[in-house]
Amino acid sequence: MFSIKKSTHKTLAPRKQPPRDRELMDRLGAIELGYHPLVVDYNADINKLVLAGGYRHISNQAKHLIAKNLFLRSIKHGQETLSVVRIQFGREMSLHSAGDLIYATGLRLTWIMELLHWGITYPKQQQKFPIVAPGAIARTGESCLVFLDGDSISGRDLASVPLGSALTANTRFLAIDPSPL
Predict the structure, then answer these.
(1) Short-list 48, 23, 44, CA closest to 33
(2) What is the DSSP code string of 29-76?
(3) Angstrom distance (rounded) from CA 96 to CA 78
(4) Sign, CA torsion 28/29/35/38
(5) Quick one: which of 83, 27, 61 has its CA closest to 139?
(6) Which of 31, 63, 60 lies closest to 46, judged by CA?
(7) How far apart are CA 177 and CA 94, in angstroms?
(8) Longest pairwise C-alpha distance within the chain
(9) What pTM was estimated for this model as a whole?
């Protein structure tokens, strides 16, 4: 007699949205959710990730923060496949308010390493709308948030805004779904 083993191979096809999405959207007050698999190497050199992103423009503040490596560090090491949730609230919102809503649903804020891997993996996404990783905060005299921006005509940017800035209704926020892929 023989037995058939279940495959443990994880594919990188877009994940189907679980039934809890309607409830999650309601709890977040979101108008759009999207799930995307993302492979992140937490040991990667941040400068090499920026180069691999092929950005048309990098703001002076973002260049300074990356050069000095002033970002809050993740506690992860090695390589991991994550389920990233792309959230659009559809209204102007502060980073603090968005972070509170994201945490309240059990999702985790994304970090700078995850944002940079996102830019490399999904370059066309940031040509449609600004993409924020709520945990991509730098420790400086004036804390700021680094985010992905751009458009289909002029290209892709790595930009920054002061932490207290209101983010537009078109902004997408990235969060990590801790449930397995």
Answers:
(1) 23
(2) T-SEEEEEEEEEETTS-HHHHHHHHT-SEE-HHHHHHHHHT-BPPPS-
(3) 29
(4) negative
(5) 61
(6) 63
(7) 21
(8) 68
(9) 0.80
Q: Structure tokens of 68? A: 């000095």
The DSSP result for the chain, as a single string, is ----PPP-PPP-SPPPPPTTHHHHHHHHT-SEEEEEEEEEETTS-HHHHHHHHT-SEE-HHHHHHHHHT-BPPPS--SEEEEEEEEEE-SS-EEHHHHHHHHHHTT-EE-BHHHHHHHHHH-TTGGGTS-EEEEEEEE-SSS-EEEEEEEETTTEEEEEEEETTPEEPTT-EEEEEE-S--
Q: How far apart are CA 24 and CA 20, in angstroms?
A: 6
Q: Could you list the pLDDT tens digit for every one of the 181 residues in the chain?
A: 333 333 333 434 444 444 456 777 787 888 888 889 999 998 888 888 888 998 888 888 788 777 666 555 556 788 999 999 999 888 998 888 888 888 888 888 888 888 999 999 998 888 888 998 877 776 666 677 888 988 877 788 988 888 788 888 888 889 998 876 5
Which residue bears the tokens 């090491």? 77
Structure-token pair, residue 115: 């944002």
